DNA sequence: AAAAAAC
């Protein structure tokens, strides 16, 4: 399977004239690299602003610890300061390796990858493309697909290669797998007269219904004016596909894992013709609650030529190991730095003492002018519901709520209101944390402290998308103290500043964390007793 | 370390 790389995607507005001049600039910079060596020009200035996801990176990137766990850095003889690496050209890097070449023999694409901070590993990694037109030269891209892409205002390709792709939030991962898949499938199965077997050829998995739906919408945009059958898998669509003839006309299925597993077990779905399997938000799909389901889907995909790909902005070591076990001879691509948010997002943390002080703080915030729409995260469903009610009672306009305890219709309606710009304040749980792309969101508030670094990175990644900047505020209480430092490190790595005293916090020992847990539990039990909820105690 | 999400 031919693999290729996309480099970056632009936002919603598209001016053909501007696009042209940007492309010329871009190409110029690549064909004459020696100029950029001598000239003290920041190479990044040749990037169109939408593409420069790291434009505010100066401060923070250098602070990343030398001993970071990113394996992509291990090939360097010593770890140079990130800031100087950023200005370093391909030539300089080679001198560093003792290579006397003037760079002309460097593997094609290395300079480009360096400039856009993409690292690629694996055998026979094809050179990246830098504009979509390069695809036409190197691959057989159906014309309709290409023109549908242009009609949808995609400006630049983004980092992608089949198999393991790690790229920050809002950098265009969805397109980077949809486009190659649709291109490689070539034509809808209904027009192929059996040459490609029968049955669905691509499965896209996502951890939430909302995300699956969003991927579906993106997919439909690329399928305009072609007879693709793209199915957003649900109870309803599953039942229309009980008939094998109907099933054989389907090209792409987008689903959450459990829905798919249910159909497989009922014998109402066969995945033996699947050529492309994508795990979006892979680390989430590979964590313990989803793992068995995902493995069942994978083992149902029996076609020998299947290409599997995992995508996420975060991939902790455990998840990566699982992923590597699933993938065959994978290429691993990292855009920017793994497990690090974009410097486009300016992050702050706010001390609020205890839970009771959170609402007053938030209301103070709302007393000042703010930039809707706003996304607020809470730790539980009831807290999301009650905070939304509380805000409405306090006169905040157009407050909405979304969590998985609501009905499908309620959830769908909430997302549509958000998409139409009718929600100004959306209070939500982890459901909204990953993948969701609401273009206008300029600010995220973590009302409740996130339960992991990954959760933090994904939550704040709802803003700062497609090259726009964003703001993220995180409330923390005394109880959150043991986890504060790990989040503070994330802020530092991505260019936001952190008060000194937080950095001086001792690294919490496992014992201390345990004690905090016990205190928390005791408090909860006491609170439950007070309101006579003994059932709540038993549950725990 | 822990809630949420998946049917």
UniProtKB/TrEMBL annotation:
Domain Helicase ATP-binding: 154-333
Keyword Glycosyltransferase in annotation: no
Gene Ontology biological process terms from the UniProt entry: maturation of SSU-rRNA
Reactions mediated catalytically: ATP + H2O = ADP + phosphate + H(+)
GO molecular function: ATP binding; hydrolase activity; RNA binding; RNA helicase activity
Helicase C-terminal domain sequence ranges: 358-506
E.C. designation(s): 3.6.4.13
Gene Ontology CC annotation, any one: cytosol
Region (Disordered), start-end ranges: 31-50, 55-109
Signal peptide annotation: none
Ranges of Low complexity composition bias in the record: 70-79
Keywords on record: ATP-binding, Helicase, Hydrolase, Nucleotide-binding, RNA-binding
Bias type Acidic residues, positions: 94-108
Similarity comment: family membership: Belongs to the DEAD box helicase family. DDX52/ROK1 subfamily.
PANTHER family: ATP-DEPENDENT RNA HELICASE RHLE-RELATED, RNA HELICASE
Name of the featured protein: RNA helicase
Organism encoding this protein: Boletus edulis BED1
């Amino acid at each position: 399977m031919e693999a290729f790389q996309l480099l970056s995607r632009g936002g919603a507005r598209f001016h053909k004239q501007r696009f042209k001049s940007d492309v010329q600039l871009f190409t110029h910079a690549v064909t004459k690299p020696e100029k950029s060596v001598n000239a003290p020009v920041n190479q990044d200035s040749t990037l169109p602003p939408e593409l420069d996801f790291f434009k505010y990176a100066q401060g923070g990137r250098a602070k990343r610890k030398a001993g970071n766990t990113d394996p992509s850095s291990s090939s360097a003889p010593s770890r140079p300061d990130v800031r100087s690496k950023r200005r370093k050209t391909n030539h300089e890097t080679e001198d560093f390796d003792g290579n006397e070449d003037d760079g002309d023999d460097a593997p094609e694409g290395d300079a480009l990858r360096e400039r856009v901070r993409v690292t690629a590993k694996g055998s026979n990694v094809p050179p990246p493309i830098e504009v979509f037109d390069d695809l036409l030269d190197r691959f057989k891209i159906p014309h309709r697909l290409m023109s549908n892409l242009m009609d949808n205002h995609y400006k630049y390709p983004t980092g992608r290669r089949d198999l393991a792709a790690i790229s920050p939030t809002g950098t265009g991962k969805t397109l980077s797998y949809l486009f190659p898949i649709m291109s490689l499938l070539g034509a809808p199965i209904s027009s192929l007269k059996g040459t490609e077997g029968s049955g669905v050829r691509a499965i896209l998995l996502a951890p939430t219904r909302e995300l699956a739906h969003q991927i579906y919408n993106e997919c439909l945009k690329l399928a305009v004016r072609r007879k693709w059958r793209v199915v957003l898998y649900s109870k309803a669509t599953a039942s229309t596909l009980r008939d094998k003839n109907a099933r054989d006309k389907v090209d792409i299925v987008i689903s959450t894992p459990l829905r798919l597993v249910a159909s497989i077990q009922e014998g109402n779905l066969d995945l033996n013709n699947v050529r492309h399997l994508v795990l979006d938000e892979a680390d989430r799909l590979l964590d313990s609650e989803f793992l068995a389901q995902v493995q069942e889907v994978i083992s149902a995909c029996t076609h020998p030529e299947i290409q599997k790909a995992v995508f996420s902005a975060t991939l902790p070591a455990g998840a990566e190991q699982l992923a590597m076990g699933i993938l065959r001879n994978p290429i691993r691509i990292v855009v920017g730095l793994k497990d690090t948010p974009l410097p486009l997002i300016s992050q702050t943390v706010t001390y609020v003492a205890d839970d009771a002080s959170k609402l007053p703080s938030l209301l103070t915030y709302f007393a000042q002018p703010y930039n809707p729409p706003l996304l607020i995260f809470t730790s539980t469903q009831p807290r999301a519901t009650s905070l939304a009610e509380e805000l409405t009672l306090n006169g905040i306009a157009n407050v909405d709520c979304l969590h998985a305890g609501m009905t499908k219709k309620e959830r769908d309606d909430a997302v549509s209101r958000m998409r139409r710009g009718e929600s100004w304040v959306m209070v939500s749980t982890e459901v909204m944390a990953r993948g969701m792309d609401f273009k206008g969101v300029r600010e995220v508030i973590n009302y409740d402290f996130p339960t992991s670094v990954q959760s933090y990175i994904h939550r704040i990644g709802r803003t700062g998308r497609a090259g726009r900047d964003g703001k993220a505020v995180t409330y923390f209480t005394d109880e959150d103290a043991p986890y504060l430092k790990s989040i503070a490190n994330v802020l530092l790595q991505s260019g936001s500043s952190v008060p000194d005293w937080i950095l001086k916090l001792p690294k919490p020992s496992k014992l201390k964390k345990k004690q905090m847990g016990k205190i928390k539990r005791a408090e909860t039990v006491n609170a439950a007793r007070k309101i006579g909820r003994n059932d709540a105690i038993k549950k725990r």
